[in-house]
Amino acid sequence: MIGIVMDNRLRNLDLNLLVTLDMLLAELNVTRAAQRLHYSQPSVSVQLAKLRDVFDDPLLLPGPRGMRPTKRAESLREPLREALAAIERAVTPPRAFDPVSANQTWKLAATDYAESTVVLPALQRLRSAAPGSRLAVVEMAPPRFEKQAEQGEIDLAFHTVEGAPESMRRRLLFAERYVLVGRADHPRLRRRPTLAQFCKLDHVLVSPEGGGFHGVTDEALQKVGLTRRVVLSVPHFLFLVSAVASTDLVAMAPARLVQANPALRVTDSPIEVPGYEMCMLWHERVHRDPAHQWLREHIAASV
């Protein structure tokens, strides 16, 4: 019952009355308190009368030099000051983020592809701009990252636009296309192969779910009545790169992953394969956080 009464009191209490009480306890003079609050003296007197009703206590009594607080008022002085300071902090707009003095720990959910094409290009700039901050790259788990972001377990996730949760905020980072890639001295990639030659090559593909031998390239081939030879299925893009760099296998790989790699020969595919768009995802709860905004801008500017 006491809890319910106190809750009702708080709910019905005008915060301005507490601000006035804090000033009255500081000045112990209605006139000076009114001047500092930019109120009229009668207005402050009316508020003092309301405060006496709220606390069922005179609070301030006439004294030889102004007013003197009652014992109840003295007990209110410090907790009231702390409470008003906490409220002021809560409603004050957040300060601008200073990366140089920050000691943030950011958690990014990324596949090995996103690690290479998004995180790595941004890493040196992040380290230079925010040297006291830390970065944790965690394994991408698409069925879970929406919940992880909601609970603050990750700050950002990198995913294709297709399949990204509609409830999460997003920013497009880049559009990706597929290219044909093999080792630098691959005898059959000295020039762009014909479609028939392409289908006879031994291919490797990435199967994120594990063990699959069919992908977007095979769907494109099916539309023209053709198939290719997929002899190796791997779960990660980086292993795909290692496999084609050290064998006669070839792959249809994202261009950003294999560009400027001297161990590889890259050429256009003889069949058009749809690419995809890569985006950055985050939860609404951190959308307006200055540190998070800085991180997103920094990453977007690096890719």
Automatic annotation (TrEMBL):
<dbReference type="InterPro" id="IPR000847">
    <property type="entry name" value="LysR_HTH_N"/>
</dbReference>
<dbReference type="GO" id="GO:0003700">
    <property type="term" value="F:DNA-binding transcription factor activity"/>
</dbReference>
<feature type="domain" description="HTH lysR-type">
    <location>
        <begin position="13"/>
        <end position="70"/>
    </location>
</feature>
<dbReference type="Pfam" id="PF00126">
    <property type="entry name" value="HTH_1"/>
</dbReference>
<dbReference type="InterPro" id="IPR036388">
    <property type="entry name" value="WH-like_DNA-bd_sf"/>
</dbReference>
<keyword id="KW-0804">Transcription</keyword>
<dbReference type="InterPro" id="IPR036390">
    <property type="entry name" value="WH_DNA-bd_sf"/>
</dbReference>
<dbReference type="GO" id="GO:0003677">
    <property type="term" value="F:DNA binding"/>
</dbReference>
<dbReference type="Pfam" id="PF03466">
    <property type="entry name" value="LysR_substrate"/>
</dbReference>
<protein>
    <submittedName>
        <fullName>LysR family transcriptional regulator</fullName>
    </submittedName>
</protein>
<dbReference type="InterPro" id="IPR005119">
    <property type="entry name" value="LysR_subst-bd"/>
</dbReference>
<keyword id="KW-0238">DNA-binding</keyword>
<keyword id="KW-0805">Transcription regulation</keyword>
<comment type="similarity">
    <text>Belongs to the LysR transcriptional regulatory family.</text>
</comment>
<dbReference type="InterPro" id="IPR050389">
    <property type="entry name" value="LysR-type_TF"/>
</dbReference>
